[in-house]
Q: What sequence folds into this?
């Protein structure tokens, strides 16, 4: 068991009892305890970061999340650990989970840590405590908050979508406000994530709620222009815009690009891109369920010609 997994009071008593290798008669101070705890935080962070790098393996990812949780037990305001917990629980639900309820639960964990991460901004936290809605309180967010905003919004979006249109629309104002703020603060964050979000947003919305397929196409192009190696953008375009427009050719073009992509050319994206290639194979298997018969026949005829 890590020192950080023990309550601080227990840790203090243990260190006082042992004297922490001090000479007889020496006593343990609060500063000494803090120094030991700080060293343990650094060790756990290093271990967690290394494991997070191997997040393509769900077991490694779970170990990293456990290590990050030990860090925030000892250091509740550790922004790096909180951000990784948001992103990690999101990725676990998105890449390594099949069961619907498990996905909901894991994305809910991401949202929980996202709220804690955003509360590190004292102005934001004060506004929420005063009764402001998150979509309004986000005005106080700074560039330092952009990563937490992005991953929290992404988790809320997936958490809502899997539960149906009512849940999606109910959380839409918050998600839109968060992504809009990220777009303002850091539009290139996570491989042009804001533009990618808007690409999906304008294609999945019901027509009565503002669906705009031309806008969707433009935003997807913008995201791809800025970050062509992030395969998730093409997967989102294939499963959302291509299906909405019944564009079988676009669907196959994006899927083929993803499957043919050499993931070793973008090592920093390897975990995400490995999972996006798995999604591509799954989408290809259900192509005939996504497109109407006439669209498929027209595409197949064009290929044979």
A:
């Amino acid at each position: 068991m890590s020192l950080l997994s023990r309550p601080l009071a227990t840790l203090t008593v243990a260190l006082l009892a042992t004297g922490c290798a001090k000479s007889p008669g020496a006593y343990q101070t609060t500063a000494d305890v803090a120094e030991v705890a700080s060293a343990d935080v650094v060790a756990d962070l290093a271990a967690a970061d290394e494991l997070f790098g191997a997040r393509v393996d769900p077991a490694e990812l779970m170990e990293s999340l456990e290590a990050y949780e030990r860090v925030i037990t000892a250091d509740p305001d550790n922004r790096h650990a909180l951000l990784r917990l948001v992103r990690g629980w999101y990725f676990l639900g998105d890449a390594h989970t099949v069961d619907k309820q498990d996905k909901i639960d894991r994305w809910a964990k991401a949202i929980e840590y996202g709220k804690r991460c955003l509360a590190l901004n004292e102005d934001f936290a004060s506004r929420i405590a005063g009764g402001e809605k998150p979509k309004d309180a986000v005005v106080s967010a700074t560039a330092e908050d952009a990563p937490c905003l992005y991953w929290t919004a992404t988790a809320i979006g997936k958490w809502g979508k899997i539960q149906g249109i009512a849940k999606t629309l109910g959380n839409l104002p918050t998600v839109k406000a968060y992504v809009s703020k990220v777009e303002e603060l850091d539009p290139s964050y996570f491989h042009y994530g804001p533009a990618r979000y808007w690409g999906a947003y304008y294609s999945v919305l019901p027509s009565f709620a503002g669906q705009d397929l031309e806008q969707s196409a433009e935003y997807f192009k913008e995201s791809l222009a800025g970050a062509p190696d992030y395969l998730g953008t093409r997967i989102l375009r294939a499963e959302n815009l291509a299906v909405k427009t019944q564009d079988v050719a676009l669907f196959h073009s994006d899927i083929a690009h993803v499957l043919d992509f050499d993931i070793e050319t973008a090592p920093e994206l390897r975990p995400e891109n490995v999972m996006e290639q798995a999604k591509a194979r799954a989408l290809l298997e259900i192509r005939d369920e996504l497109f109407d018969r006439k669209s498929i026949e027209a595409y197949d005829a064009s290929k044979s010609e």
Remarks:
- Confidence is low (pLDDT under 50) at residues 1-34.
